[in-house]
Amino acid sequence: MAARRYIPLAIFIVLLAVVQITVSLAGANYYLTQLTMSLYYALIAVGLCLFMGYAGQVSMGHAGFFGIGAYVQAVVTTSNLLPFKDAGAVRFLDSIGFLIHGKTTLGQPVLYVSPWLALLFALLITVGIAFLIGVPVLKLKGHYLAMATLGFNVIVLTLVLGVKPFGGADGLSGVPPFALVPGVAVSGRFDARVGNYYIAAVLLILGIVVAMNLVRSRVGRALRAIHGNESAAGSLGINTSRYKLYTFVLSAVFAALGGCFLAHYNAAIGPSDIDIMKSVRFVAIVAVGGMDSIWGVVYSGIILTFISLRQVFQSYDEIFFALILIVVMLFSPRGFFRYEYVKNALGKLRARLRKERAG
Amino acid sequence: MRRGKTDALLSVRGVSRRFGGVQALEEVSFEVRPGLIKGIIGPNGAGKSTLFNLIAGDFPPNVGEIWFNSHVITGLAPHAVAALGIARTFQTTRLFEHMTVLENVMVGRHVRSRTGFTGSILKTPGARAEERAVQARAGEILDLFGLDRYAAHSAGDLAFGIKRKVEFARAVASEPALLLLDEPAAGLNIAETRELSSLIATVKNLGITVLLVEHDMSLVMNISDEILVLNEGRKLIEGAPRDIQRNPDVISVYLGEDECSSSAT
Prior knowledge:
The complex is a heterodimer of chains A (359) and B (265).
Chain A (H helix, E strand, L loop, with lengths): L6 H19 L4 H25 L7 H17 L9 H8 L3 E5 L5 E5 L1 H23 L4 H21 L9 E2 L4 E4 L2 E3 L6 H23 L2 H11 L1 H6 L4 H27 L1 E2 L6 H14 L4 H16 L7 H15 L7 H20 L1
Antiparallel strand pairs in A: 1-2, 3-6, 4-5
Helix pairs in contact in A: 1-7, 2-7, 2-10, 2-11, 2-12, 3-5, 3-6, 3-10, 5-10, 11-12, 11-13
Chain B lengths: L9 E10 L2 E11 L4 E5 L6 H9 L6 E6 L2 E2 L5 H6 L2 E3 L12 H8 L8 H6 L2 H20 L15 H14 L4 E5 L7 H16 L3 E5 L3 H7 L2 E6 L2 E6 L1 H6 L1 H8 L1 H8 L1
Parallel strand pairs in B: 3-8, 3-9, 6-7, 7-8
Antiparallel strand pairs in B: 1-2, 1-4, 4-5, 9-10
Helix pairs in contact in B: 3-5, 3-6, 5-6, 10-11
């Protein structure tokens, strides 16, 4: 029983490797850049799937959390501390190895905060903001909640555009590589494409395992109960507001984590990456994936992001995502790729075959 | 109004509740002693459901206190009331329709288990052991209710009578000290009602105290140890079923003044 749960995971890992080997053998490694980005976006979708598909809530503001992660990471790691190198705090951080002496692309020496420390900082800020936003906003339901989270996204976007250290309309560039361990760094360097593809894959797999463990547990059951009938869940002792809040925060962390890694991978982050249409896109991905199907969301996240990044829809990209959202909500509000649909279809087919054989 | 400790499990003291201009409950006081089945009856609009929802924490009373096991529970949220050991069913069944029957009953074990977000994500040995225990106990409850063959069914696909039973089983799964049953026989046929009555007796034998609101008079009179009659938001009378049946006030409330005089002869 327990082993069967890991079959989809094994299939996924094999598929990831097959795709990389095929692409590399075909001499088309440039595909790996978009694939890597798609893996990071799928991570964000998996987090949102917990909040939407399992807890049954909606967030039209997850690009805001993505932005908080990416921007904090970028601001912290692109701030040159060299002019302050004699300040006590800077010297202390340097002495315990939390600062990195590097060079800009132009070869000038810089001193900046270790991306690991920046990551910790970015995630802590995300958790703090998610709590602050979540406590009042999660009292709302349905489209009121959607509008409130949309408002949050607008605030983040406006702050980013208006506050100088965030680079305004230009965004931030020159984000240094993130050396996870010596020799393995998150960066967009051409000769590191294969390695980076696997870094993103490992992060996504970790996210999937976290999500799978959570949904197949007492907590996951409580979340589905809240989704099914909130008052009944409360009558059975489930602290519904706390469970919704924690899931909101966890899904925000998934989004921020994707943002932090993408900032290093692209070496940049800009306001167009965090606008409202990106939040709509995340919701569309989760809806297509089947809302409460983690694997459905993983595949829809990778595939939809990839074809979008390949410019298949050119300037109609946003229309495409808005359109799928409308279609899903109209015809299949519980999502497209649902295991039970496949199961039902197979069951009907089997019944028909049996009837034909009997008749 | 009595103060301090009593030997009652539940003690409702001088509770009033208003909705806009409607006085739904006025100065209602009563007690539920442990181990018994207490029935609440009264004509429509008597305040039975309001009383239930007050005890369960859906909304607070305007005046008065509710004590449970020497805790004041007035003003507590429903989940906090449940955590203290009060479980309930609803007048219209509220199942988790997209979950299986087994999963529904496993949710009933929520207050009897403790694995949180961290334990769930890390799948600690403690979390796994607890999950196995929850599943095993839920299985036993299904057996007790004769629902084992529906364990893997989606709750939304079940017939009405079975849904009622699953909701009952889900509430019992939390092993509450007090179980509130809100019109459990509503919509059930005669056979199902008979089965319900024997299930309530089984639950009583498990040591669970039962408070029920019910319109089916023969059911209430047969299984209740005590009966509370509400009328127009006030307590009319409280006593053993036999005394309630003979009480002229109760008869007049149910049958009207004129019929009362003729039926009393």
